[in-house]
Amino acid sequence: MRIEILFPELCNLYGDLANIDYLMKSVQGAEVIRTGIKSRPYFADNTPDLIFMCSMTERAQEIAAGALIPYRERLNQLIDDGAAFLVTGNALEIFGRYIEKDDGSRIETLGIFDTYAKRRMMSRYNALYWGKFGDTDIFGFKDQFSHSYGECEGLFTTLRGAGLNPGVQMEGIRRRGFIATYLLGPLLILNPPFTKWFLRTLGIGEPKLAFEDAAMASYERRRMEFTDPKTGFEY
Q1: What is the three-class DSSP state of 91?
Q2: For the whole model, what pTM was predicted?
Q3: C-alpha count within 13 angstroms, C-beta hemisphere, residue 125
């Protein structure tokens, strides 16, 4: 398995890169390609088994979007062809049409999905999250200055917390092999049943997760806490 991480020197907040560390421990022989912000992406000429991009600062969003715009047609083609993407945190916003800043100005983004983000730097949103992926419980955390709006196929159905924005149940974006979510955490360590499903989509027939017993025990403990109506969700 060959995994391309986009711009790890910029996209490295909230421990999201541990998603890839966990995959590396769970998949024997997996290889990581770290594409720097000034480098030609590996995906421009090849099809990795997984393209990963994660949380960054708001200033880094502008830099990352500018670096990817020359490759938007290639990215769109990869998504249409079913290539696998995992996009977490505010990296999700780079695949929409634009990000609206507090002053009303807009940052051009890739326009692959018919969504847009509204950034409000004086209104930080912090919350726990409980949702569903089919019949599977999904747990995680959110910490963001922006929400997304528009039309797309969602990834999770929200039970507690906010979806793409507080007014919708739909959380994340999904199209064929592309999955994106605002959830931090990191997602794959917190949700081992979802991680097993994800590895199967990457061609791992009978995935065995690293530290699986401990991961499942933590997941069940988290289920008890997050589904308890006495647990406060926004903080």
Answers
A1: helix
A2: 0.96
A3: 23
